Amino acid sequence: MNVRELALRVINDVNIKQAYANIVLNKLFSKHQINEQDRRFITELVYGTIKVGKTLDWILNRYMSRPLNKISPIIQDILRMGAYQILFMDKVPDSAACNQSVELAKKYGHIGTAKLVNAVLRNIIRHPEKATYPTPEEDIALYLSLKYYHPLWMVERWIEKIGKADTEKLCAFNNCPPDLSIRTNLLKITRAALIKRLHSEGAEAVPSLLTPEGILCKKHTTLTNMASLHEGLFQVQDESSMLVAHVLAPQEGEFIIDTCSAPGGKSTHIAALMKDTGKILSTDIYEQKLNIISENAKRLGISIIHTELIDAQQIGDKYPMQADRVLVDAPCSGLGVLRKKPDSRWRKTETLIKELAELQGEILSSAAKAVKPGGVLVYSTCTTEVEENNKVIEDFLASHENFILDDARKYVNLSQQNNKMIQLWPHIHNVDGFFIARMLKNK
Ligand SMILES: C[S@@+](CC[C@H](N)C(=O)[O-])C[C@H]1O[C@@H](n2cnc3c(N)ncnc32)[C@H](O)[C@@H]1O
């Protein structure tokens, strides 16, 4: 199988079986002997074709006499991949993109489909000017959705909530790959010493302005090759996610419950802030994910984290009024972290947002019961959507009069926040979109 055929198999698995691109790619790379250059080509082709998604379909339909979705799924993917190489990959000669796609169409279809693929792709090469979108004046939502490869419903929702200009900035931001953000393990090393160490390992590292332990790596070698990672000197974690433990403000010796905790980014941060004293109960609903928390804790030299398989909706009944502080880093739609996973934007739906909001409310109510009187409850998500954020908290406070909203801004150094609840926007704060609310239990 050549590289394009391998990429096609991955794309087809993602589009037909709803497989996760990173998982299929990892499996592929562990099964086949593929050199570094080919790996990079396959990865770019797979992620690019999937990310540009519906925009490729729109373009292809402009060159086809019958709709793209009326032909077989594998031929659709061959066309998408071919069009992506022609229009978005500068280094691939058009003729190679076209000829190789025709070969794939022969193998996975018949002579008729091969002719179709040849005709459509040659037409794109000869007449690239036909690949146009509606103008912003004609249809701003469709224009932004096509130009920045985002689902139309998402763009419409954001235009309504934050306006056209911010929606455009947000969509553009989501298409830029992030720097690697890491958290210094202050139990083992200072941030300044870690930055020196990272430089010696070939990384370009600078301190984050948002948190005292954050570091941004602009250039670095493959993570798994970095000795400093294996020595437990840092944890990969976005800067905005690091703010959560600071808002929780755990104290040495306390008992903390972290309810939705895998893979343990926040649990291990909390442990470091507690100088590895006291106890943290880190729970999740997936056993295999709990193992990852334990592995991370071990690597980072943390002893106070205990894991337990438990649905967060039951945590309050199992540990009533026992914890000094409880963190609910809730399962969410993840609309704040779209830049991290090129295939994720196409998996989201508006229904998902509504369903999650219900689950989040239930988890929060149960978690509230686990907080001691006088204790702290922190709720966070990596989404920008108000139904999963402010609305969940407002509903919670309306039905739990023994809790009051604390001002989360007091615990972190943030500008542009005009509410006691923190909402970080990717295009404004240059980090993952995150929401953090802090509440105090008075009885
Ligand atoms: C946003 S992630 C947590 C990230 C984690 N706090 C960290 O900082 O590394 C949400 C987690 O919630 C877990 N989860 C989903 N539904 C849950 C439930 N009903 N009870 C407990 N955990 C749940 C998921 O398995 C996932 O690991």
UniProtKB/TrEMBL annotation:
Cellular localization per UniProt: Cytoplasm
SAM-dependent MTase RsmB/NOP-type domain location: 170-442
Pfam family, one: RsmF-B_ferredox
EC number(s) from the headed UniProt entry: 2.1.1.176
Binding site for S-adenosyl-L-methionine: 260-266, 284, 311, 329
GO molecular function list: RNA binding; rRNA methyltransferase activity
Keyword Cytoplasm applies: yes
One cellular-component annotation, GO: cytoplasm
Catalyzed chemical reaction(s): cytidine(967) in 16S rRNA + S-adenosyl-L-methionine = 5-methylcytidine(967) in 16S rRNA + S-adenosyl-L-homocysteine + H(+)
Keywords: Cytoplasm, Methyltransferase, RNA-binding, rRNA processing, S-adenosyl-L-methionine, Transferase
Active site: 382 (nucleophile)
Coarse class of the protein's main subcellular location: cytoplasm
Its biological purpose: Specifically methylates the cytosine at position 967 (m5C967) of 16S rRNA.
Protein name: 16S rRNA (cytosine(967)-C(5))-methyltransferase
Organism: Selenobaculum gibii
